[in-house]
């Protein structure tokens, strides 16, 4: 059985669709999950969101043990969490950092990422399309092409 692709989402992303739509768009997390699953085709997607740093650390470790690749939108934890950095350092699968907005074009504190130094790549600034591009990259890096290739 093929290993699944993990998509992990950090704090406040459960509020997408109503949270600052001028920055994050009107798509909900359910919309993003559906788009990720479509893009992944026949590859299983383990899609999760948590507002809790420790839970995200546990899931990163699980992805490293059971997954073929990891797409992570760490949200605010990307700018603050050494724990996520350390957890990501323990995995040997491709890691794609993903953001709906473009952190480099936002507040100074958002321009620092604790994830980027250990990520294989970064996709940001394209809204829901950021996730689709990240899924495509993760699949290719994991050695599989989606049904949308």
Question: Would you give an account of this structure?
Answer:
With about 150 residues, the protein is α/β, with parallel strands linked by helices. Strands 2-1-3-4-5 form a 5-stranded parallel β-sheet, with helices on both faces. Strand 3 (about 70-75), helix 4 and strand 4 (about 95-100) form a beta-alpha-beta unit. The radius of gyration is 14 Å and the shape is globular. The protein has 5 helices and 5 strands.
Task: Pick out its properties.
single chain; 149 residues; alpha/beta; 5 helices; 35% helix; globular
Helical residue percent? 25-40%
Largest sheet: 5 strands, parallel
Assess the beta-strand content as a share of residues.
15-25%
Structural class: alpha/beta
Q: Spans with pLDDT under 50 lasting ≥5 residues? A: 145-149
The separation of the N and C termini measures 21 Å
Mean pLDDT: 91
Shape: globular
Beta strands, count: 5
Largest beta sheet: strand ordering: 2-1-3-4-5
Helix-strand blueprint:
Layout: E1 5-9, H1 21-24, H2 29-40, E2 45-49, H3 53-66, E3 69-73, H4 82-89, E4 95-99, E5 121-124, H5 128-141
Parallel strand pairs: 1-2, 1-3, 3-4, 4-5
In short:
By secondary structure, the chain is an alpha/beta fold.
């Amino acid at each position: 059985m093929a290993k699944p692709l993990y998509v992990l989402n950090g704090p406040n992303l459960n509020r997408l669709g109503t949270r600052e739509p001028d920055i994050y768009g009107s798509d909900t997390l359910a919309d993003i999950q559906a788009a990720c699953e479509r893009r992944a085709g026949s590859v299983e997607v383990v899609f999760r969101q948590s507002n809790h740093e420790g839970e995200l650390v546990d899931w990163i470790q699980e992805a490293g043990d059971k997954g073929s690749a990891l797409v992570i939108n760490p949200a605010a934890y990307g700018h603050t969490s050494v724990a996520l950095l350390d957890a990501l350092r323990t995995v040997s699968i491709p890691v794609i950092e993903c953001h709906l907005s473009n952190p480099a074009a936002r507040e100074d504190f958002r321009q620092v990422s604790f994830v980027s130094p250990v990520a294989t790549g970064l996709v940001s600034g394209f809204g829901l399309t950021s996730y689709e591009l990240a899924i495509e990259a993760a699949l290719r890096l994991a050695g599989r092409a989606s049904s949308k290739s």
